[in-house]
Write a structure and sequence with these properties.
Radius of gyration: 24 Å
Shape: globular
Bound molecules: adenosine-5'-triphosphate, magnesium ion
Structural class: alpha+beta
Length: 506
């Protein structure tokens, strides 16, 4: 296949780190050499080595050109980098050399589908599909249950901004085309009351920016679809989803303050003498839905968009725009993230953790991120949707309790964690939902960890035969060692002090 390795961003050393994060898996080390060192006569080795002398510059450089020169580059660079004199110059562990060379079609594809057995993307395409999109594609490909969906590329987001914040020509048709594939897989359609498909619209950049950009859940509901959903899945559930959607769409897409919706909810609970949302009746939820629509009309001067395709288009734009929200910009500044193209947008079939007591949602690390202990570490909430955990509306339970509440889904989850660790050769951070006892994987990424955690995990992964010693050394970052070299208060001491209230944390 004709392919191109893009590295237009690589104009300075400070771009190197960004390239690393865009083009590589979190824990892979790769050397990418600037395009201009590939000449028809071969690779100008010295120049490449010269550029790479400074280990502080990061571990990645960029290369372009076609697939053949990329293969040649791989061969040449592996042999050069492995020479002892250069190993010293790099001062980095070069045993695991990887020039990531993802074939990349010359005609730009803006939308990639994912789903069991048929993903167009893979984990090495973070720079294009964002971390979330690339890993959703990968999890589907290796056979895990992932609700199907589509990913609009980060380059399309850039194109959107270059186009004066207007949907690029042809994009909508590509989205609808990919949506058809999702509808066929799900045997349901967006906006069809008889067989309603609901979707989430999720952001996801090449570098993880946790919670910094926007997500809309339960998209596809309107006054007709909610009736269809009621007869299939129960009226209470349908109207609960509808009021959640109105709140989220109003807030995320139209910028209506969440407090306006929240106030209406509190008023209703007060009028009924209730304390919990879950105590509201179906009739209460219906009333809330019409109140929410009024809030929408008052705040925007327009009626709530009933056509799910309009809802989808508006939400995609909102996710693109969230790339430049003040909090996302601030996060990139603080974390020195520069040079990215934008966010990818994932449109994914919804699964429901709020369908009753055989459903739920959770997040976990495959090992304890503070201590590195090999034991699932996370939280789980019965009969809830993802945002309930994040929003702190209810207090989640420890993941262990899921074993008793939903044993089948728990066993599959444990198995999936093992599969993912073996596949990614790393400790993973996972989001999942159980709908009617069936487990669905919604996200995975390499888990953030402390210094102690990093060292223990790296050593254990070597013992388990998953990685080599040089890779383990590379997994421990300078900041991890920095943390370890500082005096620390032991956890048990901290707990005792807290118990005795000897100090106040400000
Ligand atoms: N198709 C879906 N079905 C069910 N739940 C979903 C779906 N898509 C997203 N969610 C849940 O909605 C919540 C928010 O989604 P998302 O992962 O996109 O954003 P986030 O977790 O807030 O931020 P980040 O970008 O760091 O992942 C998560 O708990 C996620 O699991
Ligand atoms: Mg998430």
């Amino acid at each position: 296949m004709a392919s191109i390795w893009r590295s237009g961003l690589l104009s300075s050393r400070s771009d190197v780190k960004v390239n690393a994060a865009q083009y590589c898996n979190d824990r892979e080390r790769c050397y990418v050499i600037p395009a201009d060192v590939i000449s028809p006569s071969g690779w100008k080795r010295e120049k490449a080595i010269h550029m790479n002398k400074d280990p502080a510059a990061g571990y990645c450089f960029g290369i372009s050109k076609d697939w053949t020169s990329l293969q040649r580059f791989r061969r040449l660079s592996t042999s050069v980098i492995n020479q002892p004199k250069y190993k010293k110059a790099f001062r980095l562990n070069v045993a695991r050399f990887q020039a990531i060379a993802t074939p990349y079609p010359l005609t730009k594809q803006r939308v990639y589908t994912f789903g069991k057995g048929g993903s167009e993307g893979n984990k090495n395409m973070k720079y294009l599909l964002g971390g979330k999109g690339a890993n959703l594609a990968e999890m589907s490909s290796i056979g895990l249950s992932v609700p199907p969906g589509l990913t609009i590329t980060t380059e399309t987001c850039q194109e959107y901004f270059e186009n004066g914040n207007i949907f690029p020509d042809g994009l909508w048709e590509e989205v609808l085309d990919a949506l058809k594939t999702v509808e066929e897989t799900m045997q349901a359609s967006l906006g069809d009351p008889a067989k309603p498909l609901l979707v989430s619209v999720r952001s996801g950049a090449a570098i993880s920016m946790p919670g910094m950009m926007d997500t809309v859940l339960n998209l596809g509901l309107n006054d007709d679809v909610v009736k269809g959903l009621s007869s299939r899945s129960g009226e209470r559930f349908a109207y609960d989803s509808y009021r959640r959607f109105l709140d989220m769409f109003g807030g995320v897409v139209m910028g209506i303050p969440h407090a306006l919706f929240e106030q209406e909810l509190e008023n209703l609970k007060a009028a009924r003498g209730l304390t919990l949302d879950t105590e509201l009746t179906t009739e209460d939820l219906k009333e809330l839905v019409s109140k929410y629509k009024e809030i929408y009309q008052r705040a925007t001067g327009k009626a709530f968009p009933h056509d799910p395709k309009d809802q989808l288009r508006l939400s995609i734009v909102a996710v693109f725009e969230s790339w430049n929200s003040p909090r996302a910009i601030k996060y990139r500044n603080i974390n020195q993230i520069a040079g990215l193209k934008g966010t990818a947008v994932n449109v994914q079939a919804m699964v429901f953790g709020n369908m009753g007591n055989d459903s739920g949602t959770g997040v976990l690390f495959t090992r304890n991120p503070s201590t590195g202990e090999k034991k699932l570490y996370g939280e789980f909430l019965i009969n809830a949707q993802g945002e309930d955990v994040v929003a702190g509306i209810r207090t989640p339970e420890e993941i262990d309790l899921m074993k008793q509440r939903l044993p089948d889904a728990y066993n599959e989850l444990v198995e999936n964690c093992q599969i993912l660790e073996k596949h990614y050769k790393d400790m993973m951070d996972i989001e999942f939902t159980v709908q009617g006892n069936r487990l669905w994987m919604l996200q995975c990424r390499s888990g953030k960890r402390t210094g102690t955690g990093a060292v223990k995990i790296a050593v254990d992964l070597v013992k388990e035969g998953l990685i080599s010693t040089p890779t383990a050394v590379n997994m421990v970052e300078p900041r991890h060692l920095d943390q370890l070299l500082h005096p620390q208060v032991s956890t048990s001491t901290t707990l005792n002090l807290l118990k005795e209230s000897k100090f106040i944390i400000l």
